[in-house]
Structures are given as C-alpha cells and as structure tokens.
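Write out this protein's structure.
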Amino acid sequence: MPHQLPLSFTLRELRPTEALPWPLLLLADPAEAAVRQYLPRSTVLIADTSTGVAGVCVVEWQSDTEAEIRNLAVDPVQQGQGLGRALLVGTEELARQRGIRQLRVCTGNSSLGPFALYQKAGFDLIALRRHYFTQQYPEPIWENNILCQHLLVLEKRPLPTN
C-alpha cells in the first residue's frame, strides 16, 4: 500500500446559510426523517479539506449537562486519516465549552470501525439495546457482511477538563 501523506483539514461549525452535507449524514444514519428530527437541537461540526466537506459530526444538546453525538461520518475515500478522531476531539471541546459533563454516542453492532474509534477515544460501553435496528428501520442495514441489529450505547463522563 502506498504511503499516504497527512490530510490537511479544518474543523468548524457549519454556518446556518450552508447546505447540510446530506450524503455524509445519511452514510452514518440512513433514516433521513430521524436525522431531520434531531438537527434543530444540534450543532453540526464539519471537516473541510481542499476538495470540500470530508467529515461531519452532529452533537445534540439534551440538557445543560448531557449531550449525544447523533451522527459521525467521514467520506470513505478520506477514512483512516484521522478525521473521525479529530471530529470527536472537536465535539468534546464544544461540549466542554457548554458545560457538558456526560457525552454519549450510539453505534450498531456491525459498525466495527466506529466502535473501535469510540473506545480508543475513552468512551465506555454502558448498554445494549437488542434488536433496535431491525425493529426501528424499515430496511436491513448490512456493514462488514454483518446484519446491524443491536444498538451499542457508549458514554464518556465526566468529560476531562483542560
């Protein structure tokens, strides 16, 4: 495999006048109606590269002390270059600035890469919701040749302070 040069990118909040990166949002969550429901209570953080938006992270503010990462996606061509980790770090910083003490993220049992990413970032598995995806989504979701059935709930608390 050829050596890849480090990707140059900038993290920033999506401006209200900018179009949402729907292809990326739907890559992480194919239920557009569900995404539209949590967006009004959320902040959208994007990773800009020279070729455009390569990653997105949506954090929903659930209370004064709790938030949930509802959507995290990186363009498949750009994966493996640190964008997902950078988006997590940027989201944690936003959460700290807002006084958030508990940050949650959920993923599917078939999402092996994201599950590893979250654990490496210090999130702990706290719950499993059996058959969530097969009961809540109209079409089966397959990743890594595995049927996505169960929702894995991870949490990081308290958020470390700087």
